Amino acid sequence: MKKILVIHGPNLNLLGSREKKIYGQTTLAAINAELAAVAKKNKAAIEFFQSNIEGEIVSQIQASRQKFDYLILNPGAYTHYSIAIRDAISGVKAKVVEVHLSNIHARESFRRESVLAPVCLGQIVGFGKDSYRLALEYLLAR
């Protein structure tokens, strides 16, 4: 059975009420419920974690070392500068897919570079809530 951890970074707890033109109207709870249903259908174990705090995300990645095969990570703004999260990803055996609801490459210049992408299995961006589902479906098919 594949074991997958989904980590949601800063401000994602406000989905559905924040900047709807960029991030959509779907709540984080709804995204998690959809992912849980897909995982169950495919006989995979899935857990969820959300934090606005960089150190908690680092600790969660480190704690995943022996428990999860894959991580789906939406690091939010930490995408662009968190060497600590990058180092945590490099230090675990789990393969990580970076996801973003918006197309970070089509937004402000400071959002276009991910310091995490080079240590991730891949990156899925710009498909709204479906970015998460696409990442999960990819991992389930591996």
Automatic annotation (TrEMBL):
Which top EC class is given? lyase
Q: Which Pfam families match?
A: DHquinase_II (PF01220)
Could you provide one GO biological process annotation from this protein's UniProt record?
amino acid biosynthetic process
Q: Does the keyword Amino-acid biosynthesis apply?
A: yes
Per UniProt, subunit arrangement is:
Homododecamer.
PANTHER family on file: CATABOLIC 3-DEHYDROQUINASE
* Protein name (record): 3-dehydroquinate dehydratase
- Originating organism: Candidatus Termititenax persephonae
